[in-house]
Amino acid sequence: MEIIVGKTAGFCYGVKNAKDKTENVLIENKENKVYCLGELVHNKQVVEKLENMGLTVIENVEELPKSDNKNNKVIIRAHGVGKEVYEKIEELNYQYVDLTCPNVLSIHKIVQEYIKNGYYVLLIGQKNHPEVLGTYGWCEGKCSIVETEEDIEEICKKIQSNKILVVAQTTFSLEKFNKFVEIIKTKLNNELEVRNTICNATKLRQEETEKLSKEVEAMVIIGGKNSSNTKKLYDIASKITSTILVETAAELDLEELKKYKKIGIMAGASTPKESIDECIEALKSI
Ligand code: SF4
After folding, report:
1. Mutate to test the pocket of ligand 1, among 22, 79, 101 (most ligand atoms within 8 A of CB)
2. CA distance 33 to 29
3. Number of Cβ atoms within 10 Å of the Cβ of 100
4. Which residues participate in catalysis according to the annotation?
5. Whole-angstrom Cα distance, residue 224 to residue 206?
6. I want to staple 224 with a disulfide (CB 3.0 to 4.6 A). Which of 42, 47, 129, 178 is the partner?
7. Which atom of ligand 1 has the smallest separation from the CA of 202?
8. How far does the centroid of ligand 1 lie from the alpha carbon of residue 102, in Å?
9. What angle do CA 31, 35, 37 make, to 5 degrees?
10. pLDDT in tens, 108-128
11. Ligand 1 pocket, CB under 6 A
């Protein structure tokens, strides 16, 4: 069997940076409490490893107890958080370690700058995604989140501002983003600024997944079941060829995969190299 592994499979630089720096923080803070707001990455294996090193994962800042020691830390993960979360962390007597991906920080800057200049923001992304909620938290309430085509109709009817900025969640599908922008243009006569803030790492991974899917008989997508960017890779590949989505090598149906002579492997931005290597080994053993 021939196995082709996508060049862009696995950790993007934002996630790698967050994971590496969190490990360092944990090593340097054995005497202090270290919390993380939400799972550092959408990957069970990575999160368990960090928890074993001393990290406490809590859902959100509301669950953070008051700290009696200023050296206790709160990790802000690559998704970023809204302005009020930074304030709350300091109020509760913690230091924050800001591991927000530079790409996400740049969206926070863009929305603040445009809002200052009188724009209303249309943020294209998933309504409950932490990154989207974080960006929303920099918009002073002058923002609507667009997740579906139906949202566009409803939101455009209500918009009062003449100046509109459109931005996207970094891991949103490029195809859908372009489609939504075209629809928005037909609904609004307002001054429209479109900033494609989809991360290049995401774009390249999606493009490579499409290309690779056309070259193989089956695709194996590796990543957390709750990772939206992994799910998108699955969606892209499954439209082209037989595709399975697994979190670990143990989930591979080797009997089923035996029938293919050429298999492609792609992995989401939060999938560690170890998980990819384990899957390659398992496939090689067939
Ligand atoms: S996918 Fe892109 S924006 Fe998101 S953490 Fe990775 S590099 Fe940053």
Report:
1. 101
2. 7
3. 21
4. 131
5. 16
6. 42
7. 1
8. 8
9. 170
10. 999 999 999 999 999 999 999
11. 12-15, 78, 101, 103-104, 170-171, 199, 201-202, 269
Spatial distance between the Cα atoms of 8 and 4, rounded to a whole number of angstroms:
12
The 10 Å Cβ neighbour count of residue 42 is 24
Give pLDDT tens digits for 86-99. Answer: 999 999 999 999 99
Tell me the whole-structure pTM to 2 decimals. 0.84
Q: What is the overall mean pLDDT for the chain?
A: 94
User: Which structure tokens are listed for 81?
Assistant: 């958080």
Contact 15, 25 (CB under 8 A): no
The helix (H) or strand (E) run that includes residue 130 is helix 130-136
Quick: pLDDT tens for 186-225.
Answer: 998 889 999 999 998 988 999 999 999 999 999 999 998 8
Cα–Cα separations (whole angstroms), residue 268 to 52, 85, 125, 193, 242: 23, 27, 18, 30, 18
Q: What is the pLDDT of residues 244-268, one digit of tens each?
A: 999 999 999 999 999 999 999 999 9
3: amino acid identity, one letter: I
Encoded amino acid at 81, one letter: V
DSSP code for 172 = S
Structure tokens that stand for 80 in this block: 């970023």
CATH numbers and ranges of domains, the chain: 2-10+200-284 (3.40.1010.20), 14-100 (3.40.50.11270), 103-194 (3.40.1010.20)
- Predicted pLDDT of residue 238: 98
Highest mean pLDDT among 37-41, 202-206, 240-244, 272-276 belongs to: 240-244
Q: How far, in Å, from the CA of 127 to the mean position of ligand 1?
A: 18
> Token pair for residue 82?
């809204």
